[in-house]
């Protein structure tokens, strides 16, 4: 009998569990050593540079290049992990570029953990010679994913409007670039203004407002084929399109009642459903990631504020989301639906701010004067927005971890960025 | 009438079964057990019983030894006389209370020692994990996640499971990453086997930034 009781106690004892509470964290980000990639001469140098820039822009790492390191070794047998640890390095990236033939390049890379002294990832990416930057972006995303367990956004695209003032006329261009602002492509060039570009959820199409007909009209354009069609034909001004997460609906601002109201357009049968009804302006709609709610800017309280409307409830009343500051506009949801980002005015300065739904205050993320049009990356880590630098409009980015960067503009004013979804 | 009556009985049984099910589901029969302290009480009691019987056996054996003492030669006799004294005094005093007091003190001492050791090792583990944890910036306040880790005898973390998510993937990932970075608690060789089995085999980690 005693034995039975004893064994019972032993069993229960196995389940007695120690609970440890972790409250402090290290302030130092991970340090990565990126050795210049081997092979293919100049090409490998470019690829190494692009990778280093990509990793820096995530704001989550300290990046050391070959020039900061003692030696340039590219052989695992020769890696002396102790030396890396002395420099405080957590991860080491080594890679090789190989030109297979005229149309094929492979980049193979290995990530080593300097603390555990072992290889943690070994991978290969394939591409064609004139898209070497794309290959480098794939490697960056692999590194980012290995270290943070989150998907990388280096290989995604950004859509924006570029305005070029020539002597006699203005040209408006709808542009597409890599997430680092390079590799620009023109999707549309027009004499009339283009505004509010946005992506379809599958990143195959873009929607934008063009004034080419003399009125504001929403167009949907396929990126691959370039074919475009008008989303809704009527005699009213239409603006700020936004695709629903399933891609079947488009929310729009229509001026058919004399003032701006938000409507939902069913793309399959062109049926319009009115969402708001108020004598003040309601505009800049944006869908929640689950497609159940729509966020918009409204002047119904006397100043621009953000409201949310529940699409699942019949006749639901808009719920006000922002209460601090007398200007909160141009909002969109975080990809994980935990909060919103928007333009927030404090005093005379317009900043990009973040507000979590379970917090009753806004977190300003930028400090400049005239920040506008924030747009978040599909992994929810980076926000790209438009700034005024020496009266010149260009794009800048800020990561939630606090890193800031500017995207180079080729020429003219750049504004209204829109981030694609994951493309790979 | 007969059929109606059957229906009535059937509906009564159905009602009672469903009511029980609902009550079970809403936790009506659930008694919350008090959380087990770090050292489980029943073990101490058990150890006491064990020790007591062992001690008693030892005493008996000593007593039999004492009888044999005169037979053996002098040098051994001298050695053996020393342990006789406590048994003598114990014989004179009331045996039960004396033994119990001694054993209680003994247990307390070992208790304190164990608790101290557990604290010491826990602190070392917390320090290691904290130094490996990079908390993501600009996350909302009040995020907490629980991880359950399994550690083998050599201090190597063999499994990490998310017990309770904070709801924020960046936060959860950073916690899992921190534990994976630690990989091995290299001081586990100083831990005695019993304490490892009872306290450090499965550990729950709560990431709760202040």
Count of individual domains of chain A: 2
Helicity level of chain A = 10-25%
Query: Helical stretch count of chain B?
Result: 6
Q: How many individual β-strands of chain B?
A: 3
Q: What's the rounded overall pLDDT mean of chain A?
A: 87
- Main-sheet strand order of chain A equals 3-2-4-5-6
* Low-pLDDT residue intervals, each spanning 5 or more residues of chain B: 34-56, 62-93
Structural class per helix/strand content of chain B?
Answer: mainly alpha
How would you summarize the topology of this molecule?
The complex is a heterodimer of chains A (424) and B (210).
Chain A: H1 2-15, E1 18-22, E2 30-34, H2 42-58, E3 61-65, H3 81-86, E4 91-101, E5 104-113, E6 118-127, H4 132-148, E7 157-165, E8 170-178, E9 185-190, E10 194-199, E11 205-210, E12 217-222, E13 228-230, E14 238-243, E15 249-254, E16 261-266, E17 272-274, E18 282-287, E19 293-298, E20 305-310, E21 319-320, E22 328-333, E23 339-346, E24 349-356, E25 363-364, E26 372-376, E27 382-389, E28 392-399, E29 404-407, E30 413-419
Helix pairs in contact in A: 2-4
Chain B: H1 2-25, H2 41-68, H3 74-92, H4 95-132, E1 145-151, E2 157-164, H5 169-182, H6 193-200, E3 202-207
Antiparallel strand pairs in B: 1-2, 1-3
Helix pairs in contact in B: 2-3, 2-4, 4-5
Characterise this structure:
The complex is a heterodimer of chains A (424) and B (210). Chain A is mostly beta strands and 424 residues long. Chain A has 2 domains: 30-148, Rossmann fold; 157-419, TolB, C-terminal domain (Neuraminidase, 6 Propeller), CATH 2.120.10. Chain A has 4 helices and 30 strands. Chain A has helices at residues 2-15, 42-58, 81-86, 132-148, and strands at residues 18-22, 30-34, 61-65, 91-101, 104-113, 118-127, 157-165, 170-178, 185-190, 194-199, 205-210, 217-222, 228-230, 238-243, 249-254, 261-266, 272-274, 282-287, 293-298, 305-310, 319-320, 328-333, 339-346, 349-356, 363-364, 372-376, 382-389, 392-399, 404-407, 413-419. Chain A has a 5-stranded mixed beta sheet with strand order 3-2-4-5-6, covered by helices on one side. A 4-stranded antiparallel beta sheet of chain A has the order 9-8-7-30, with no helix packed on it. With 210 residues, chain B is mainly α. In chain B, 62% of the residues lie in helices and 10% in strands. Chain B has helices spanning 2-25, 41-68, 74-92, 95-132, 169-182, 193-200; strands at residues 145-151, 157-164, 202-207. In chain B, strands 2-1-3 form a 3-stranded antiparallel beta sheet, covered by helices on one side. In chain B, α2 crosses α3, α2 (41-68) crosses α4 and α4 (95-132) crosses α5. The longest helix of chain B is centred in the middle third of the chain and has 38 residues, at 95-132. Chain B is flat, with a radius of gyration of 29 Å. The termini of chain B are far apart. The chains are: A mainly beta (424), B mainly alpha (210). At the A-B interface, α1 and β1 of A face α2, α4, α5, α6 and β3 of B.
